[in-house]
Amino acid sequence: MERAPAVRCRGITKYFGDVVALDGVDLDMPRGQVHGLVGPNGAGKTTLLGVLLGLTVPNRGSLEILGAPVDRVLAVPDGVGGFVDGPGLYPSLTARQNLAAVARLRGRGIDQGSEVDEALEQVGLVDVAGDRVRGFSLGMRQRLGLAAALLTKPRLLVLDEPSNGLDPVARRHVHRVLEGLAAQGAAVVISSHQMDDLAALCSEVTLLARGRVVFSGSVGKLAAESGRLAYRVLTSDAATARRVVAETPGLDLVPDRHPSRPDEGAVVARGQVSAVDDLVVRLVGAGVAVRELGPLVPPLEAAFLTLTGAEGALAEVGAP
Ligand SMILES: Nc1ncnc2c1ncn2[C@@H]1O[C@H](COP(=O)(O)OP(=O)(O)OP(=O)(O)O)[C@@H](O)[C@H]1O
């Protein structure tokens, strides 16, 4: 059983009236990893997370969680924790009282003292443990929701936009918690619109569009499938660099449409990674120093725009 993936969806379909929110989703999510769900607004991410949390019953398809088939009933499957659409919290109770309430409700042996303190510590809320949640910011509520989920020691943790409202320090904190959980063998599934979060955290991502899986696999594979990206190259000699780009097979020189970053020495070249490798070798051979080199649009974002049919947005940044 432990060998089974954390999640196995086959043909999961969900309608809301005439709207097809999920349209035959086949998906495996392994244990011991953070798996990202990404897609445009209305793609079906929250609906899928709701199915995993037992909040939404699909119309068709089969679901296995942690090796066990899930019945078509509204119930949190064993070993699963998390939340969608924000954590459910009691505003008039303090952070510690909220967690103690979770411990009592979901309990089975959760210590209302030490384990609650440990969860508060993990999400960095010890200093405000005695404050009422009514006065909490969005980011503090998000972290308290995460602490509540951690208390139940989930083997599958499901979170909708976990970085929503977090400042950079809190965001790092949450990343560490999620990575730690995955390192201990749990599966973590998050949805996010923040590509840098997904790139930093996720071993694998699933891209949903109009309720269908359009890609599922490693971030590296997704970037490779996005094809020819535009790279900005800052060198010691722009004129020679332009000539070398023009001479390098598989590369096109494209206008830098980022006038807000006026680097006289920068050129923008579009092509596969292998052609860009070749360019660097040729530049050095021509006595031109490469000072900076990077994709104009991060590969994950480029893949998102390409695979969801939003190439127009890519064209705006010189990467058609
Ligand atoms: N309870 C509901 N009743 C009716 N329609 C719904 C309901 N929940 C979701 N939908 C519809 O199902 C589709 C998928 O919605 P969902 O919230 O899963 O998308 P999402 O990818 O999470 O979007 P976002 O990025 O905006 O959060 C949308 O067309 C949405 O309007």
TrEMBL record:
Stored InterPro entries: AAA+_ATPase, ABC_transporter-like_ATP-bd, ABC_transporter-like_CS, P-loop_NTPase
Residue ranges occupied by any ABC transporter domain in the UniProt entry: 7-235
Pfam families named among the record's database cross-references: ABC_tran
Organism expressing this protein natively: Oryzihumus leptocrescens
Keywords, ordered alphabetically: ATP-binding, Nucleotide-binding, Transport
Annotated signal sequence range: none
One example GO MF annotation: ATP binding
Top-level taxon of origin: Bacteria
Protein name: ABC-2 type transport system ATP-binding protein
Annotated family: Belongs to the ABC transporter superfamily.
PANTHER family documented for this protein: ABC TRANSPORTER, ATP-BINDING PROTEIN
